[in-house]
Amino acid sequence: MSELVWLIPLLPLIGFIVNGLGRNTLSKGMVGTIGSAVVLISFVCSCILFSEVYQARQAGQAGIIEQHVFDWITVGNLKIGLSFLVDPLSAIMLLIVTGIGFLIHVYSVGYMHHDKGFGKFFAYLNLFIFFMLLLVLGSNYLVMFIGWEGVGLCSYLLIGFWYKNSSYANAAKKAFVMNRIGDLGFLLAVFLILGTFGSLEFSTVFSSAKNFAVGDITVVSITILLFIAATGKSAQIPLFTWLPDAMAGPTPVSALIHAATMVTAGIYMIARSNVLFILSPFTLQLISVIAICTALLAAAIALTQNDIKKVLAYSTVSQLGYMFLGLGVGAFTGAFFHVLTHAFFKALLFLGAGSVIHGMSEEQDMRNMGGLKKAMPVTYLTMLMGTIAIAGIPPFSGFFSKDEILAGAFIASPVLWGLGFIGALMTAFYMFRMLFMTFSGTFRGTDEQKHHLHESPKSMTMPLIVLAILSVLGGVINLPAVLGGNHWLENFLSPVFSEGKALMPETHHLEHSTEYLLMAVSVVGVLIMVALAFNMYVKRQYKANEDARGFLGNLSYHKFYVDELYDSIIVRPINWLSSFFGNVVDQRGIDGVVNGAGKATFDIGKVLRLLQNGNVGFYLLMMVIGVIAIFIYGLLSL
Q1: HSE-up of 207 (CA within 13 Å, CB side)?
Q2: Which end of the chain has fewer CB atoms within 10 angstroms, the N or the C?
Q3: Which of 544, 316, 553, 344 is CA-nearest to residue 436?
């Protein structure tokens, strides 16, 4: 199978071509089957590859598979090939992208069944999977960049899928523009890497980078540019506002792109480049600060949102902040562990929200829900499991991955741990607030909605059940020693992070007693938040009222006016400047000069044509005057 690595991204590309060309001729059943089947086959191939890597790791080998497809760019001594790299890190990412991608394709068959753009939607989904696999499999920064740009394009297409709604189209444009800002950082980093190391291949760059001193200005510049790219793709301050607006796309899009795969591309890229980042302590500190600020800001906003998808969107931004916090404190395995568990429970929660919206006749405001657990028992139970997992309650998966990040933060700085702990408390509160407002109490919607209220079809509930099981059991892959585990994931990924760890200064490990204490404090705090949410939204049947929020509540509800701030300091000045250049500089300046020159020529011509009056006597007079003038000029020049 190692010789057929190229088949994994090729299959979704074939699905895109077939569904794209046959979107108006193929039946919906055929489109759904083709779109899902190609991803399923890619998943099976990924499983076979993973087993090969796993067996190699069991035998004490690195488990690295490289495949050169063809020479892409050859200029002088520069040779860049389209080549793929499968190692423990990319092997797991392949399983996430294709496995969860397949479940979301199956879910989409039911969710999008009545949509007129069914074929086009599946074509876009397949194209996204192709580019995401290209990003994950690339053995050099250029192939990764092609995949990086491709998923950005697909994000634009899928967010604005219902483009006739102007607000949805604007959300797609916003995502596209903000991602381009980050992508410029990636492109500049690629140029700087090429100029510094003479190659874009990961193996060459990382082996050469080890010869650089820690804090070298070139390496620092490269890592800052790469981090700028990651802030755009993975929605960190200041480039995070596109992701909540991206909820305009169909719910399967939110689950696939903005929860499980695309937004984790930044974490994957930094984890892949861990050698460079470890050589730049300043960048790691910058990542830690921005990450914790993002996690807290997004969590604070999620506390008061009433749109079920907006709550999950800000939750995603906050959880991405935790992943970046893990990267910033050097807990690369912990960060990637959270990528894995987050893919399970956040995809589950988004698909569960889509099931609720489907059953509620497209209603997204939680204030108009309530009491849905009787009508939608499968959706309720699976979303309950996802909520427990993201809240960090043991033994669900989110507890173990978040605990590992917080433990790494505590080693780096107790202040970072404290701030991360506060964010975890807010996470538990707003997630259970969402669950209780949606499923508990009495129904608050209209009679029409109540009449049509129903559980989703099996094509939608079966993926929920699979993801719920993964959300419960996913944490066992990296149980810490303090809980009787052997850090399987850390050992499995060690070939990817070993070179970087060798460059890191020695850090102390937490005593078991300290770990137990941190876990206990975290769990008790989360349970208190759950009890508080239960008291407010189940016992008291609290319903959000804008007038009763208070100053801080209104700040949170209005998202701390970040969009308005960006509009005031960036959008309006740019619009004014473009208007000034368009109306003043261009029309009155440049156009004035060009048009003025033409008008002056025309006016001079009108005067000069009077000389051509057809009078022979006048012509003779002018000839005489001309001869005299020439004669005088000749005399004066002697």
Answers
A1: 7
A2: C
A3: 544
DSSP 437-458: HHHSS---S-HHHHHH--PPPH
The C-alpha atoms of residue 98 and residue 261 are separated, in whole angstroms, by 10
Which distant-in-sequence residues (6+ apart) come within 8 Å of 348 by Cβ? 382, 383, 385, 386, 464, 467, 468, 470, 471
Instruction: Examine the pLDDT at 139 and tell me if it is beyond 70.
Output: yes
Say if CB 139 and CB 201 are below 8 A apart. Answer: yes
**Residue 33 class from Cβ within 10 Å (0-12 exposed, 13-18 middle, 19+ buried)?**
middle
Select from 396, 417, 419, 399 the least CA-distant residue to 408: 417
Distance CA 367, CA 10 (A): 45
Q: Are 361 and 447 in contact (CB under 8 A)?
A: no
Residue type, 634: G
Element (H, E) at 169: helix 166-197
pLDDT at 101 over 80: yes
- Which residues, in sequence order, are bridge partners of residue 81? 71
pLDDT on residue 546: 47
Lowest-confidence region among 185-199, 201-215, 506-520: 506-520
DSSP annotation of 214 reads T
Check residues 258 and 305 and name the one with the higher pLDDT: 305
Reported as half-sphere exposure (CB side, CA atoms, 13 A), residue 607 has a value of 5
User: What band does 2 get if pLDDT is binned at 50, 70 and 90?
Assistant: low
Give backbone dihedrals phi and psi of 274, rounded to 5 degrees, phi first. Answer: -60, -30
pLDDT at 633 over 70: yes
Distance, CA of 118 to chain centre: 24
Direct distance between the N- and C-terminal alpha carbons of the chain, in angstroms, rounded to an integer: 96
- Per DSSP, the residues of 276-303 read HHHT-HHHHHHHHHHHHHHHHHHHHHHT
- Is omega for the bond preceding 238 within 30 degrees of 0, making it cis? yes
* pLDDT score, position 259: 67
Contact partners, residue 600, CB within 8 Å, separation at least 6: none
Q: Do residues 287 and 329 make contact, with C-beta atoms less than 8 angstroms apart?
A: no
Q: How many CA atoms lie within 13 A of 430 on its CB side?
A: 28
Condensed to tens digits (0 to 9), the pLDDT of residues 409-450 reads 999 899 999 999 999 999 999 999 999 999 988 888 788 888
CB atoms inside a 10 Å sphere around CB 513 = 9
In angstroms, the CA 340 to CA 261 distance is 10
pLDDT in tens, 25-73: 999 899 999 999 999 999 999 999 999 999 998 988 888 988 888 888 8
The secondary element (H helix, E strand) that includes residue 80 is strand 78-86
Helix (H, G, I), strand (E, B) or coil at 531: helix
Helices 118-137, 88-111: axis angle to 10 degrees equals 170
Find residue 469's DSSP bridge partners.
Answer: none
